[in-house]
Design a protein that fits this description.
2 domains, Thrombin, subunit H, disordered N terminus, Methane Monooxygenase Hydroxylase, Chain G, domain 1, globular, alpha+beta
């Protein structure tokens, strides 16, 4: 077994791949670079998030540990619609700030099903009876889900938001 440079191992993502980074949503791998940090060469994915006008560098070896993942499959989208159409979780006696932390944690987990659960649980007949922080969390979740859905279904983000609203409206009427 020879001791060749392990940095030449195959990478999981390729340039132009659409990926999801838990805290930022859908981005695109625009380059794979080798950077030298303290004399050590590290291969990094350069991920662009045009919606946020941001570029992130994620070490290839730590990509999975940081939550970087491929877009979900079309089959997963069907599962997400089922989650959205399900019954909202019963509101517990926990203080709002504790529930808000749990919602934020789900949104930033990178798990698209968890994001759908937040949307389902915070969805109400109209936005007027939500507190400011509820609205903010709800909008964050719906925008995160719409970002991935727009790429999967080749529609715009506003169209994806409308589609999600339609699914939620059906659930409310049912």
């Amino acid at each position: 077994m020879s001791m060749h440079n392990t940095e030449s191992m195959t990478t999981e993502f390729k340039i132009r791949d659409k990926v999801v980074y838990p805290a930022h949503g859908v981005g695109e791998v625009i380059d794979i670079e080798t950077e030298s940090i303290a004399g050590i060469s590290i291969q990094v994915y350069v991920v662009s998030f045009p919606h946020d006008k941001m570029v992130l560098r994620v070490p290839v070896k730590r990509a999975v540990a940081t939550g970087l993942r491929a877009l979900v499959s079309k089959d997963s989208v069907t599962k997400i619609y089922k989650v959205l159409q399900g019954k909202a979780a019963r509101v517990t006696n926990k203080m709002w700030n504790r529930r808000a932390q749990e919602y934020e944690s789900k949104i930033n987990s990178g798990d698209i099903t968890a994001v759908a659960e937040v949307i389902r649980d915070l969805h109400k007949d109209s936005g007027t009876d939500r507190s400011y922080s509820e609205r903010t969390i709800y909008e964050s979740a719906i925008n995160r889900l719409a970002g991935e859905l727009s790429v999967l279904e080749s529609i715009t983000i506003p169209e994806a938001v409308q589609k999600l609203a339609g699914v939620l409206e059906k659930q409310r009427v049912a």
